Amino acid sequence: LAKTTQPISMDSYEGQEVNITCSHNNIATNDYITWYQQFPSQGPRFIIQGYKTKVTNEVASLFIPADRKSSTLSLPRVSLSDTAVYYCLVGGRTSGTYKYIFGTGTRLKVLA
Amino acid sequence: DVKVTQSSRYLVKRTGEKVFLECVQDMDHENMFWYRQDPGLGLRLIYFSYDVKMKEKGDIPEGYSVSREKKERFSLILESASTNQTSMYLCASSLPDRNTEAFFGQGTRLTVV
Q1: Chain A partners of B92 at a C-beta cutoff of 8 Å?
Q2: DSSP readout, B41-99?
C-alpha cells in the first residue's frame, strides 16, 4: 500500500517558486499521482495529476522521477492567495480494488 | 463548473443516533466518494461508488454504510453515531477512469455528543 509522506509546513515569500515534495515509496504500477489544494472551510481542489516525467498546466508543474517513488509539485511565483494546505494523493486500481491514499498535507504560508 | 453539494455544513448529533449525510452532484459523474478529514491524519476514504447501487469499501468503512439509489446522489449513513465519528466529512465525484481527479463538496462538520 502506497503510504505518502510530505513536509508538515513550508514558508515562502511572494514571487518565489515553491517546490513541495511527496514521498511514496510503495507506489503501485497503476497508481497516478495527484495534487490538491485546500483552503480553510472548503473542500480540496484538484491542481494537477501525472503518471511519470513532467506535467505542466496553467497553475503548476509536477515532476516525477523515473522510479516514481517521489513527486514534486512546483508553484511558480507564488502570491499570498496561494497560502493553503497542499495534499499529495496516490491512487488507482490494483487487483480489482480501488485505493486512494492522501498525504497528511503540507501547510504553505506565503509571506509578503 | 462541477458542483458537489453536501446537505449540511454543520451537524450536531447525539451518541447512538442514526445519521444521514447527503451529497448531490450535477455533472453526471459515475464515481462518487466519501472521505473523512481529521487533523494530522489527512483525508481517508470511507466508501467509493462507481455506479448506481454499486459500492466499494475504502480504508475506514467500519461504522459506516452508504446508499446510491440515483446517479447524482450518494448518502453516507452512520448507523449508531459515536463520539469518535466526530469529524469533517467530504463528498467528491469524478468521471470514470479519472478517480483521482475528483471534485469535492464543501464538507460537513459533524459533532457527535
Answers
A1: 43
A2: TEEEEEEEEEETTEEEE-S--TTEEEEEEETTEEEEEESS--GGG-EEEEEEEE-TT-T
Digitized pLDDT (tens) for each residue of chain A, 112 residues in all:
558 899 999 999 999 999 999 999 988 888 889 999 999 989 999 999 999 989 999 999 999 999 999 999 999 999 999 999 999 998 876 666 667 778 889 999 999 9
Q: CB within 8 A of A38, min separation 6: which ones?
A: A44, A45, A84, A85, A86, A87, A105
Q: Which residues of A touch B90 (CB under 8 A)?
A: 43-44
SS3 percent helix, strand, coil of chain A, rounded to 5, is 5, 55, 40
C-alpha cell at A73: 509539485
Residues of B in contact with A42 (CB under 8 A): 106-107
CA distance B80 to chain A (A): 26
Contact criterion met (CB below 8 Å) for A81 and A22: no
Shortest distance between the Cα of B95 and any Cα of chain A, in A, equals 13
State the nearest Cα–Cα gap between A12 and chain B, in angstroms: 22
